[in-house]
Amino acid sequence: MTENTRRNRPDLFDARETILSNRRDFVTYNITRLREVIRHLSRKKLELFHTIPLLLHVNSPDLPGYVDHPQTPHGIYGFFDSGFWMLAKKRLGIEIENIRSYISKSFLIKGIYLIGSTGTVGQTDISPFDYWIVIDSGSVSEAHRGLLSKKLGRIEEWAKQTYDQLVTFFLLDFEQIRQSDFCGIDEECLGAAQRSLLKEEFYRTFILIGGQIPYWAVLPARLKDAEYKSWVETASLLSEDNSLPDDYVDLGNLTAIKSEDFPDALLWQVGNAQNDPVKSLIKASLTTHHCFFQEKEGLLCDIIKERFFEGRLDSCHLDPYVFAFEKALAFYESMDDEDGLELVKQCICLRLVGYPVPSEPDENNRKAQVLRDYVDAWSWADDQMSRLVSYGLWPEKEKLRLEKRIIDKLWFLYQLVSSSTGESKAIKGVPIEDLSPFKRRIRNRFEKKPGKIPRCSASLRVQGGGNALFVAHQRESPDVSFWAVYSSSVKSAAGKENAHFVAPELLRILGWIIFNGLYEHKTFAVALQFVQGPISRKLTRGVLDELFSFFPDQIPPLDHTSSDPRWLRVFVALDTSRFAAGDTLQSVDYLVQNTWGEMFFYSLDLTHIESNLLKCHEIAKQAWRYFQTAGPGEASYRIYDLRTVEDASTTRSINSFIKSFQKTGIGDHKAQEPERKDELEPDETERADNEPLLDLF
Q1: What pTM, to 2 d.p., does this model score?
Q2: 39: how many CB neighbours lie within 10 A of its CB?
Q3: Where is average pLDDT lowest: 231-240, 430-439, 611-620?
């Protein structure tokens, strides 16, 4: 029998021998990946990792994740034969007789698979646990699926609170995976933008935690769809005595990544770069390599699968991330793009030293070995590597410059692929005519606009969650002062060079802290070290707490039917720019957030207006202008008065004016002025810090 005939029409004996042999290779490979997961986990997080499968198999009131409903789906196929059960049983002292009543008689979870960087050289101390939970929707009603989702959500919350570990469960139907339909994998259907690319990443990186083995992992590589179907049909006829076919699940074949998937996937990476630009560039470079070379070289997941038989414990030669690194490097070499090649080299090294909080890797682990090989191959000087290892100590401006280089390269890759494959097709659930706001929103994340609060570096967002930031009021001269955020205590005039962010106004500084998620309502998160500060620590702390409670952590999902963002939150602060000893209003500052997640700062000087009532009218009119694009009940506002002699009538007057505008439409200049595209956007030119905003509208 020729090789081609055997692959197309395997007889039972050939199929059995091939599958059992491939299964042994896959199991060895899977163990290698599991060992790498464990290697990088602290003792506490290892405890969590060992416990999660038990929480999915059992629905007990004595365990986290319990949902008080008798029909809550749970139970993993083959769990009691797994090492996770043995470890949990030993650690928690569980006797099966005591939990038998909380175990499902039918195992509704087909498989649990850990995906992504976990278990690779790309794993860091803050790597999330991303699990695909695969079920058969034909056996689970929508109501029961909702109960399982609730259980998964409770486990996620418990893991974060108890272990400070991000755990995310993606609940998927096996038929959904077969069709490469990932629209429900996130709130905005961005998972659908990756389609076959996401499936390739799954097959390339997944680790079997419990349940059934995907047929793809034990069948010959590079099968055409008809060949794959024939193999699965033959395998289903094998004797149950050989543990076949119940040990396997058909998640579908993958022969190629569709050309129309590439632009959308790269667009998604551009958007995700605000969270991890280093990871985004590596993945985008791999995606672009697939776009131009998959026909010649095949899929990376198949290349790795063909080498399962080489699996050796504690070896890095089959690490999925190392393969991805090599393809990313090869792409820029093939393009003769020296800038891109140098940039991706830096990103690879940053990834290996634990970006976004780098440190020198342990000499005895895989990362150090891979890193040494790269440094030698690239003939890097010692100071080049030392500088990347010390990335956490870089000034914020330098980190942002590197991130901008990465963003620019990501847009280059997107444009390169779009020109080669054609413009993005409609993302499932998003009509092609509505992709324009989708793209604009992603672009707007990185655009500079007058008054827009900038994003901090991804590294600072991670570090800021565990280290105190210091806010100080500094003087450049007797008449000129500024506010600044530092990472260390300020004992004297520290200047602007070492500051993370500098602004003339306090509210802009506090808005930057809130917008970037650097304040967690903990007293140690932000230290207020004022040097001749105009506002007391107590008052400033009050503003921070108000901002933290007013602005939501998450904005609503993007409304694809809206061509422009709508204003969502308006925070009105009276006299935060300067200290007012009396009850006379001198200025008002606004922090406003729109439905695209952008935040803006505006300041209004009131000193030229004599009447307090007229001042209240101007304050209300500016706030009202933001509300007019919002849907019914969508926008909200808050007025905060910092004056030492607070006049409650001022707040009442402002509220009264706003309510009258809402009822009568007075203050709406749309009917009197020609409509402009930027009607509710900041002016295109920068203005003096104290210039009134009246003429903007």
Answers
A1: 0.85
A2: 16
A3: 430-439
